[in-house]
Amino acid sequence: MDAARTAGLLTTAQAADALAGALRAGLDPEACPRRSSVSAPGGELLLMPAASGAYAGVKIAGVAPGNPARGLPRITGSFLLLDGPTLRPLALLDGAALTALRTPAVSALALRYLTGPGRPLRLVLFGAGPQAYGHLEAVLELRELAEAVVVARDPGRAGELAAHARTLGVPARTGTPEDVAGADLVLCCTSAREPLFDGRLVAPGAVVVAVGSHEPDARETDTALVRRAAVYVESRAAALREAGDLLIPEAEGAIGPGHISGTLAELVAGGNSPGGRPGCPQLFKSVGMAWEDLAVAVAIYHAAGANGET
């Protein structure tokens, strides 16, 4: 399946349902194989295998930081879906399109539990690439927005995303990192290696989602936010291997390994009431995991069969 077919068969909400279904069926993210990484001339080559139930699969992804300057996507690759009992190949999906769907779906699933019903949300969105667009649309499937403020290194691209948000019926503008002080929801979808904003500005009860990195020495949020936030992750083991947002504050002595409040599986199982903990900020830190790619790929495969495309 090329990028258009891979991206066009599921909404973000449907992909989030697939993730929740996998967790409710007993998939344990803590047992998911760790990501393998190999340095390559253009960046980093990632190998992400997973197996669960009737299916197995592997994503081979490239992360090429220089590609956007060439007019090419930063994330490349393919996902091979296999029949679990026989390991016969079933489908080959565009890896970048799968990632562009899976990552907002993971965030959307967490936000179902961390944001409760109520007034429209004020959003601050860091980044102006594919993940920023995907997360904006994922949030709009979930909640109404009172305003969207886009913050990005490139003012032109920030303006383009704000204009796109306005076409979706959202009052939107470009802004600065200080706008987080008025936000109900902050989405970090960047390739930044240093904190994007002052975590002391984030209001109690606000939710921050950070998806931009999976490296121990890179982070989008600062120690001040992490120290005062209730922190949720996809997997404790994966976060404590790869999430610089948590590992750097731990190395500084600001938090301990028990600082994580909960996991995505625990949220889905009912470990947190809708709306989360209003007395402090809430941070959902995602590093991206192979089981998520597998769950969404299986849902895409089923959707393609239902539409007569397989």
Automatic annotation (TrEMBL):
SUPFAM superfamilies: NAD(P)-binding Rossmann-fold domains (SSF51735). It comes from the Bacteria. Pfam families: OCD_Mu_crystall. GO terms for cellular component: cytoplasm. InterPro entries: NAD(P)-bd_dom_sf (IPR036291), ODC_Mu_crystall (IPR003462), ODC_N (IPR023401). PANTHER family: KETIMINE REDUCTASE MU-CRYSTALLIN. This is Ornithine cyclodeaminase. It comes from Streptomyces katrae.
